[in-house]
Amino acid sequence: MSSWLNNAIFYEIYPQSFFDTNSDGIGDLPGVIEKLDYIRDLGCNALWLNPCFLSPFGDAGYDVADYCQVAPRYGTNDDLVRLFDEAHARDIHVLLDLVPGHTSIEHPWFQASQQAEANEYTGRYVWTDSVWTPVGDVPGVNGVLRGVSERDGAVAVNFYAFQPALNYGFAEVAEPWQSAMDSPEALATRQAMKDVMAFWLERGCDGFRCDMAGSLVKNDPGQEGTIKVWQDIRAFLDERYPDAVLISEWGEPDKTIRAGFHMDFLLQFGTSHYLDLFRCEHPFFAREGAGDASEFVATYQRNLDLTDGRGLMCIPSGNHDMERLRRFLDPEEMKMAFAFIMSMPGCPFVYYGDEIGMRHLDVTSVEGGYIRTGARSPMQWGSGGNMGFSNAPASKLYIQQDDAPDAPTAEDQMADERSLWSEVQRLIALRRTTPALGAMGSVEFVHCEKDAYPLVYLRSERTAEGELVPGGKRVLVALNPAARPVEIPCPYEAACTIYTLGDPATLAAGTLSMPAASAAFFALK
User: Fold this and answer.
1) Global pTM value
2) Which residue from 142, 272, 448, 488 could staple onto 297, CB 3.0 to 4.6 Å apart?
3) 336 within 8 A of 328, measured Cβ to Cβ
C-alpha cells in the first residue's frame, strides 16, 4: 500500500472541460497545470485524469488510438510530463485513466489485426474464425463488429461498435477460435499493457485508474481469470514500480483487492446501493427524509467483512458516467452528502464542479456521452469568457455551459464562507488532520435502521497493518439529513465536537439529540 493513499483526497478532472488555454473551446493539459493551485487550495492532493490519449473521440477518449501519445487537442507528451512535475511540486499525485479492455478501431494494433495475412497482431483482439461465425452469448462481450475488413472473421466489442475487445484469453475455451489465457496471443496482449504502464510510470505518473477492470478475460465465471491477469500485472509492478497505485472500476472490492488493486469504487451500477444515498427518487441525503441507507450499509458491511480490512473502498461525489449530484440534491443537501463522503474510509473522490454545485444539463450528446454529457459541461470558474473556462466563442465550446442566471462559479463560492465550496474545503481539512477519519481508519456502524434517520458510525485510528491504534483517537459521525429532529440512545461519551453542520447536536447521558438537517462529528473520551 502506497503510504500517501491514507491521506489522499482525489479530484477527478475531465480534461476537455476543465480549462482552455488556447481558445479552441476545449480544455487542455496546460489548463490543468494552471489550475493546480485551485485544487491544492480546495485541499485535494491527488488527481484522476480522464483519458487524454490520441483518439477519434467516439467515446470521449475511451476509444484509444495510441496509449503512449497525448491527443493534440490536449497538448503534448511533454505537457503531460510537466503536469506530473508541477503536481508533485505541490505534493499532488496523479493517476492516469487506463483503458485496458479495448481500443479504438483506429489503433494501429487493430489496423494490423484486421489484415487477412497473419502478423504479430492477428491475435491481439477477440476474432471468430469466419465472418459468418457469431461471437455468441459470451460473458464479458457486449456485441460484435463484422464486414469491415479483408480478414474473414467477426470481432468482439466491449461497449460501442468501434471499441474492439483486446484478447486476454478465455477462462473457459468453448470454440476453436477462442484463445486460452496462457496462449501466446493472450500473453502478448498482457505484456503490451504492461509496456504502456511502464511508459507513463517512467515519466512520472503515480498509477492508474483502470476502466472496466473486471472485463478483461472472456467467458470467465466468477472473474477468476481476470483476477489472475491483474495479479500478474501487480507482480510486474511490484518488481519494477512498487509504489504504483492501481484503482479499479469493478465494484466488487473482495475481487479487486485480491487481484492486486489498492482500491475499488462504489459505482452507480451493480449492487452497492450507492444510488440510494444520492441519486434516486428519494435520496437518503435529501431533507424530505424519505430515504433509506440500510441496504447501502448492509452491502458496505458485507464488503468490509469480505476484504477483511485489506484495501480501500472509495465513495465518489460523482463521475463522468453519472448524472451530477446537483440533479438530486440542492447545495445545502450536498453539504450533508460531502460530510458523509469526507468521513468514510477509503479515498474520497470529488468530481470537478461538484464542489461548487454545478448542475446536470439537458444537452445534446457529445462524443458518445448521451445522458452523461450533461455531467461533462465546462467548469464554471468565474468572470471572463464563458465563465472563465475559455475565450473561444460560446458556439465553439466542447459542451454548452449552464446559462442560468444563478449558475454557480468557483470565484463566487470561494469568496463566501457559507458556500458549498467553503464547506467542502473545511471537511477536507478536518479529514486530513484527523487520523481516525483517514482512508485506513476503521468504521463501525452504530445506528442505521430501515427508512429511518440518523446514520451514525464510529471511526477509529488504525495502523497501516490494519490494527487499531492502542489509545488512538475515535470520532463518532452523526448525520441527520431529514428536516425533522431525531433522538436515539447512544452509549458513547463526547470529549468535544469537532465539526457541526446546521444547529448543534448533543451527545450526553446516553442520548444523541440531533436538530433537523444537522451533522456532528464528536471526538470521544
Assistant:
1) 0.96
2) 448
3) no
Q: Which amino acid is at 205?
A: C
**How far apart (Å, rounded) are the C-alpha atoms in residues 113 and 164?**
11
- Decide if 408 contacts 380 (C-beta within 8 A): yes
User: Quick one: how many helices (H) and strands (E) in the chain?
Assistant: 12, 20
Report pLDDT for 471.
Answer: 77
| 3-state SS assignment for residue 208 | strand
Per-residue pLDDT tens over the stretch 227-284: 999 999 999 999 999 999 999 999 888 899 999 999 988 776 667 788 999 999 999 9
Which residue, among 141, 17, 11, has the nearest Cα to 87 in the 3D structure? Answer: 11
Distance CA 257, CA 483 (A): 39
Maximal CA-CA distance, the chain? 80
281's CB contacts (< 8 A; 6+ apart) are: none
Pairing status of strand 10-13 against strand 349-351: parallel
Note the pLDDT tens digit of each residue in 417-476: 999 999 999 999 999 999 999 998 999 999 999 999 999 999 999 876 677 887 789 999
- Alpha-carbon torsion (147, 153, 154, 156), positive or negative: negative
Tell me the three state secondary structure of residue 343.
Answer: coil
Q: How far apart are CA 317 and CA 278, in angstroms?
A: 9
**Residues 239-248: tens digit of each pLDDT:** 999 999 999 9
Provide the residue count of the chain. Answer: 525
Spell out the alpha helix ranges (H) of 202-330. Answer: 224-240, 253-259, 274-278, 294-307
> Which set of grid coordinates corresponds to residue 422?
467553503
Residues 6+ away with beta carbon under 8 Å from 288: 282, 482, 483
Neighbours of 510 (CB within 10 A): 10
Dihedral sign, Cα of residue 18, residue 22, residue 28, residue 31 = negative
* Number of Cβ within a 10 Å radius of residue 119: 11
- Is residue 454 within 8 A of residue 488, CB to CB? The reply is yes
380 residue type, one letter = Q
* pLDDT at 141 exceeding the cut of 90: no
Helix or strand run (H / E) with residue 143: strand 143-146
Instruction: Give the span between the Cα atoms of 247 and 205, in whole angstroms.
Output: 14
At 150-190, the pLDDT tens digits run 999 999 999 999 999 999 999 999 999 999 999 999 999 99
